[in-house]
């Protein structure tokens, strides 16, 4: 019986395999081809070589959005993971109501980014109006507004991953450190964090890739105002492709560049953190 199931297993995965090919591989390959073409629809594409990539790299708004996104990704990575780890440490202690607190901190992750953006836009503009300003008048208001929004949304999710990692640490390891005379700070940095590296790897990867790919919150909170100064890379690509006639190929080239940047940074981060993982 078991052998017959294994024999027909490839047949069961065929629908998923074909869906993956049609829904991801084919559009991905077509997208790379279109990045070398000038087009308005996929049926009138004309090959133009690397001119789309040259135009993309010459675009000052795109270069600004890159550095703006890098700064955002670094800041959000640090803030989200430090606070999430601290909350996980607190909520794994013996105290009443930990399950309620975990639920409350996780709930913002269930709300869509567009909705969150408009909600926080009302909140921030309500506060800033008391000082005669608004989000759309300063790129750094938008920057820190996005940091607060994304941190509020993602901290609870990362906290759950850190809690799972903390609970997987063998108790006898912590007890052995305490017996050897290690204080709480030494135990944290010499035992807990090294044993937590698999969870830290996952959380850092999710944080940094989400930071680079951020789109819907940026669109609803600032829409790139003022004058595209708070525009991140995903929003810049969207505006190039759909907002500038004749620039569809340039927008596609930007998307390919964006994909390559996210993959390279993600792989570097994974390699750096996985090298510090220890076997339990």
Which features does this protein show?
280 residues; 12 helices; 75% helix; 1% strand
Would you kindly provide a written description of the structure presented here, covering whatever features stand out?
This protein has 280 residues and is mostly helical. It is 75% helix and 1% strand. The chain has twelve helices and two strands; from the N terminus they run αββααααααααααα. It has helices at 2-34, 51-58, 60-91, 98-106, 113-128, 139-167, 171-179, 184-195, 197-213, 216-221, 233-243, 248-274; strands spanning 37-38, 46-47. It has a two-stranded antiparallel ribbon. The two termini are 37 Å apart. The model has no long low-confidence stretch (mean pLDDT 87).
Low confidence ranges = none
Please outline the major beta sheet.
2 strands, antiparallel
CA-CA gap between termini: 37 Å
Quickly give the structural class: mainly alpha
Can you give the helix content as a percent range? over 70%
The number of E-state strands comes to 2
SS field, number of helical segments: 12
Oligomer: single chain
Rg value = 23 Å
The ordered string of helix (H) and strand (E) elements is: HEEHHHHHHHHHHH
Question: How confident overall, as mean pLDDT?
Answer: 87
C-alpha geometry: globular
Strand content: under 5%
Strand order within the widest beta sheet: 1-2
Task: Spell out the blueprint of helices and strands.
Elements: H1 2-34, E1 37-38, E2 46-47, H2 51-58, H3 60-91, H4 98-106, H5 113-128, H6 139-167, H7 171-179, H8 184-195, H9 197-213, H10 216-221, H11 233-243, H12 248-274
Antiparallel strand pairs: 1-2
